[in-house]
Amino acid sequence: MPYAVKQDLVDRFGVRELTQLTDRTNVPPSVVDDAVVGRAVADATALIDGYIGKMYSLPLATVPDILVKIAADIARYFLHGKAADKDSPVTAAYNQGVAWLKDVSKGLVALDDGTGATPEPAGGGSVQANPSTRVFRRDSLRDL
Fold first, then answer.
1. How far apart are CA 112 and CA 52, in angstroms?
2. CA–CA gap between residue 129 and residue 131 (Å, rounded)
3. In whole angstroms, what separates CA 75 from the centre of its chain?
4. Higher pLDDT, 118 or 4
5. In sequence order, what are the residues at sequence separation of 6 or more whose Cβ sits closer than 8 angstroms to the Cβ of residue 80?
6. Where are the domains of the chain?
7. In this structure, is the dihedral angle defined by the CA atoms of residues 22, 24, 29 and 33, taken in order, positive or negative?
């Protein structure tokens, strides 16, 4: 299930921008190509799943609003492709979204997935030490 749909991109970025980014057949661009938008949204969803799937079982019961925003920003970046400058707002929004997803995957940020359950911390184990078994002792280091 995608986190964003075409209408989310239209609401956030406008029909004009989406038309210019997706219509590859008409000159001048005149329609939003649903297939191009769908591919960008699917790619954004796959990227998001790669990060949040580490901490949460997929698919999510409900999609939080923040994931809709991040999916839209990532899809927009994918639609811009190589035309996105490294200093543009499109690239900045993409980088912020990916940084937030990295924090979610590390457990630094909790995602409200609608279940009310908090995920278990990554790793799940604890550190154990055995003080009675010493590797370095006075008699073993005497000749060094």
1. 12
2. 6
3. 11
4. 4
5. 21, 88, 90
6. 6-116
7. negative
